[in-house]
Design a protein that fits this description.
heterodimer; A: 444 residues; alpha/beta; five-stranded mixed sheet; four-stranded parallel sheet; 18 helices; 12% strand; B: 559 residues; alpha+beta; seven-stranded mixed sheet; 13 helices; 25 strands; 19% strand
Chain lengths: 444, 559
């Protein structure tokens, strides 16, 4: 689709893109104004029929999630905006918040109107200082302009947006961890059911949506369902459980490429196209060895799998966990997979909340095994051990409360399955990435 | 009746009963291993030890197994549900979880207090693997002696089940304990300068399924397999918590709570837990004494032999009764058992049918202390645990006996007034309150009685003034019945022998009554039940582990 015009990122390079005046000049808040007069059910129906799937990682249909709220609930109902963007390699929410805050605020306002919420909490990861300041200014502008607050534009609809800065932990991006954290507690994900739509923040019905999802809502309302469904990948007719992947998506490309960055494309672009056409190719003229399709917890694509379409179903067909956050991280052919995997495991081990035994101990154990291999102390049986540990941690045996454990295990399963020879050669050759202090002392 | 299938065995559920898989399996005597789940605490489903296969019955009657293993603690059992807790898939998950739990565990069982009653040991033996595949150094965390005055934390043994944290938040409400750090570096800790010293703190030691939280009082005292356990009742307040008394070689080493939904539930307070030390006090009266209380040799010990003293007590009382039958009295302690009170009251009235009977001092300290507390220290309703102000175990039982023997039992104050008025020639006083029941002032008054017989376990201001001093026994040395504040009759059982020259009070009184043979609690209770309508519920003889409610209107428990 060579003629694709960015929608979500359309305004980011404009001067003064964060101001209300400039947003309004581009037709901003028209969708919200339109929604103020509409029945909530019809907004939900529009979003549902657009087939908008959550952009945060799990890809759950947004409109369907909204219908899970209890009917005729006396309230309050809350919207929690998940802006705790912490999957490594992911920075699409940051661009949306820093460059076009009103697009998000309009999405929040429409969503709140649809679900009958009068209070939205935006949970922002602590590191996003600029996003916080930009959003804070934008929210204040909206209050001053009567777009937030009591009786918005005389419609009788009230809405407050509360910005909340988290204390920086990966697990706060898990929806129930986020809710616990918002309540001022340790971000230990809750056991489900009850799901947040039934009992969430402060034990009230709560919808948790990602920043990019809400930005899409704005455009679905203003441009219509047909526009949204005109791009992306329709459902596989042979698979009744495939919901299709419609709409534009922000892809974050990082790692060993010439021009890392965030691009907006219709869902379904292949990894190869992203690297070669949108990121200037693999750096230094090298070839890609592995590509992370959507954040490290989704696993790896091997060099032979680069033509996999990056829609919600694509990565799963080649053994990855899913599309995730569509954060594509490229690993060149001169990088050791042992080091890549160690880095993934170290991250997950550091971020495991420590609630469930398999995740708490398994992530750390895998990291320690890989570290030992990196010190040249690997044993051939370590690879099978890693796979066994990873398999006992996953969601499918049902061993943990949230998905972090599965996300921590997946790259290990993927890497050893797809790059086993790399590991075997590394161990057999006695390679090491790290030289221990004892050896350094002996050498000098 | 709703029925579920656990390992192919049907389990019937009550119509309104809400059980989880662990409880349903317990019904058929099958143990689903678990750490974090505790019936008195909220469900967190985090240890992942209780994973089972679950199948739901669909409307068309077919059973559909869920794709994942489910935590048994978190899964409510419904009609038609199938639970498989012994399949290879479940066993593999159990073995994997145990391997994780033992990864960083120091395996210091030889020096660990919990060894022998440890969840990690037992489950590793039953469900775990024989060796660890960890090649790397273990993660070592510092021990924390500062957790509480009575509690110490061996951090590296902890499996992060968070039972202790939930206890301080949900039952005591004091919330001293917390989890710090993240992932494998997680530790249980307290805020600096805010140790876990609430009055229920000792329970976290019992709740800890491994040897992480240990009692400083019990630390390194005994191996648990040396201990002999007796089911008994805590005597320190009128709540009457069911306890287990652990002893070795006639020394009590610890008291632990025993589950009793009729009494206190699952827990006990630290006053009771550590309040047994007087049993081995050097203030114990270790021999009976007959003393010269008049004439030249005043204070001289005349005899220390039970065989001489007991007949002398009977004879002296009878002699006094024959002169002034109304001037005979007895003070019955609320620390006596129902049986002892019955024997003593019967004995006194046999000596003199006009004998006066009084209830001894009932110590009241402050007000009932209810838990959980809110952050301001005020109790939150409904209370989950109450430490009662009435610091005596059996006021109700002794009162019931007294009322059946006399129209209007006297109070302690009445009796002191009678003594002061010279209306009492012979007085049989039973003590028993280890915190001291007799002031110097009272002792001076009582000393005026010409024939003063004192039966007690600890020396008090009055014990030196008695003509006959009878060395009784502590609660752990006696058999009998205590009736708590709510009318629950529970058996206390002899677990240790007292000092050489002491005798359990029940035996002293049995002999005074001239009954033959040995004291038999069960048959005596049957006798009491016939004689005293208010205590008819004791007719069962043995009261079982959870006791018997006195009020017939209330449902009787199945014991």
């Amino acid at each position: 689709m060579p003629t694709f015009e960015p929608v979500l990122l359309a305004r980011i390079n404009k001067p003064d893109s964060t101001s209300l005046a400039s947003y309004r000049a581009d037709g901003g808040y028209g969708a919200f104004t339109k929604c103020l007069g509409e029945a909530p059910e019809s907004i939900i129906e529009t979003v549902k029929s657009a087939g908008l799937r959550g952009r945060g990682g799990a890809g759950f249909p947004c409109g369907v999630k909204w219908t899970f709220l209890p009917k005729n609930h006396p309230g309050p109902i809350y919207l929690a905006v998940n802006a705790d963007e912490s999957e490594p390699g992911t920075f699409n929410n940051r661009i949306l918040m820093e460059k076009d805050p009103h697009q998000l605020i309009e999405g929040i306002a429409i969503a709140c109107k649809a679900i009958g919420s009068h209070k939205a909490f935006l949970y922002l990861r602590y590191e996003y200082g600029t996003s916080y300041r930009v959003l804070d200014a934008a929210v204040n502008e909206c209050y001053a302009a009567g777009l937030l607050g009591k009786n918005i534009q005389g419609s009788g609809f009230d809405l407050d947006i509360v910005l909340h800065r988290g204390a920086a932990a990966y697990i706060c991006g898990e929806e129930t961890g986020l809710i616990e954290s918002l309540e001022g507690k340790r971000a230990w994900p809750r056991i489900k059911p009850p799901f947040p739509a039934i009992e969430g923040l402060f034990r009230k019905p709560t919808i948790v949506n990602n920043v990019e999802t809400l930005c899409c809502v704005t455009h679905i309302i203003s441009r219509g369902v047909d526009w949204f469904k005109s791009m992306g990948v329709p459902p596989d007719p042979t698979n009744p459980r495939d919901l299709g992947s419609f709409g534009p998506k922000l892809y974050c490309i990082s790692g060993h490429v010439e021009k890392p960055g965030c691009v907006e494309l219709p869902l379904g672009v292949t990894a190869r196209e992203l690297i070669d056409e949108h990121a200037g190719g693999v750096w230094k003229g090298r070839k890609a060895k592995a590509v992370v399709p959507g954040g490290i917890s989704m696993g790896f694509l091997s060099a032979a799998e680069l033509d996999t379409p990056l829609d919600f179903a694509g990565p799963g067909k080649v053994g990855c966990l899913g599309l995730g956050t569509a954060a594509v991280v490229v690993v060149d052919d001169q990088t050791s997979m042992v080091d890549v995997l160690y880095n993934c495991c170290r991250f997950m081990s550091h971020e495991s909340c420590g609630q469930c035994t398999p995740c708490r101990e398994g992530t750390s154990w895998m990291t320690r095994i890989l570290d030992r291999i990196r010190h040249g102390q690997g044993r051939s049986e370590d690879l099978d051990l890693l796979v066994e540990v990873a398999e006992s941690m996953g969601i499918i045996p049902g061993t943990t409360i949230c998905g972090l454990s599965d996300g921590a295990a997946w790259p290990v399963k993927n890497a050893i399955k797809k790059f086993r020879s790399d590991f075997e050669e590394y161990i057999a050759a006695g390679n090491k990435t790290v030289t221990s202090a004892q050896e350094l002392m002996a050498a000098h | 009746m709703p029925t579920a299938l656990v390992n192919n065995t049907p389990v019937e559920l009550g119509p309104t009963e809400q059980l989880n898989c662990i409880q349903a399996a317990q019904r058929i005597g099958f143990e689903i291993p678990h750490y974090c789940w505790h019936p008195a605490l909220s469900v967190v489903a985090s240890c992942r030890m209780c994973l089972v296969e679950v199948g739901d019955k669909k409307p068309d009657g077919t059973i559909v197994m869920r794709p994942k293993l489910e935590p048994g603690c978190q899964t409510p059992v419904k009609d038609g549900m199938v639970i498989i807790a012994d399949s290879p898939k479940v066993k593999a998950a159990q073995a994997a979880t145990l391997e994780y739990l033992l990864l960083n565990h120091p395996l210091d069982c030889p020096t660990c207090d919990q060894a022998g009653e440890c969840g990690l040991q037992d489950y590793s033996y039953k469900y775990g693997r024989g060796y660890s595949r960890l090649q790397e150094p273990k993660n070592i965390k510092p021990d924390k002696d500062h957790i509480g005055d009575q509690i110490t934390l061996f951090t590296d043994r902890c499996i992060m089940c968070t039972r202790c944290v939930r206890f301080t938040r949900e039952v005591s409400g004091t919330a001293e304990l917390m989890v710090t750090d993240r992932g494998t570096n997680e530790e249980i800790d307290v805020f600096p300068g805010e140790p876990c010293n609430n009055k229920l703190a000792g329970n976290v030691v019992d709740l800890c399924p491994v040897g992480a939280l240990c009692s400083k009082d019990f630390l390194y005292k005994q191996r648990v397999w040396w201990l002999k356990t007796t089911k008994s009742v805590c005597p320190n307040c009128s709540t009457g918590c069911s306890v287990e008394v652990d002893q070795n070689e006639d020394r009590v080493h610890r008291l632990t709570p025993r589950v009793n939904p009729q009494a206190q539930g699952h827990f006990m307070c630290d006053e009771g837990r550590f309040g047994w030390k007087y049993i081995h006090s050097d203030q114990r009266i270790t021999f009976p004494e007959a003393r010269d209380v008049s004439g030249e040799g005043i204070g001289r010990v005349l005899s220390r032999g039970w065989d001489e003293i007991l007949p002398a007590v009977v004879q002296s009382l009878k002699k006094r009764a024959s002169v002034h039958p109304k001037k005979i009295g007895a003070i019955l302690s609320p620390w006596m058992t129902v049986e002892e009170a019955y024997l003593l009251a019967g004995f006194m009235l046999k000596v003199s049918p006009k004998a006066k009977l009084a209830l001894g001092p009932v110590r009241i300290e402050g007000e009932d202390d209810k838990y959980p507390k809110d952050i301001h220290g005020a109790a939150i309703e409904p209370a989950k645990f109450t430490i009662r102000a009435e610091k005596a175990p059996n006021r109700r039982g002794v009162e019931a006996v007294l009322k059946s023997f006399t129209e209007s039992p006297m109070t302690y104050g009445d009796m002191l007034a009678q003594v002061a008025a010279g209306e009492i020639d012979a007085l049989y006083v039973v003590g028993g309150d280890p915190a001291g029941w007799c002031s110097e002032e009272d002792a001076a008054k009582l000393a005026a009685v010409p024939l003063l017989i004192v039966q007690d376990l600890l020396h008090s201001p009055v014990s030196g003034k008695a003509a006959f001093l009878l060395s009784g026994g502590a609660f752990a040395e006696r058999d009998g019945t205590f009736i708590n504040h709510a009318g629950l009759a529970q058996e206390i059982r002899r677990s240790v022998r007292g000092p050489d020259g002491s005798r359990p009070d029940n035996r002293i009184l049995w002999d005074l009554c001239g009954r033959t043979g040995l004291y038999q609690g069960a048959s005596l209770r049957r006798e009491i039940a016939k004689k005293i309508p208010a205590l008819a519920a004791l007719a069962a003889g043995t009261l079982g582990d959870i006791g018997v409610k006195l009020m017939a209107s209330e449902p009787q428990p199945a014991s």
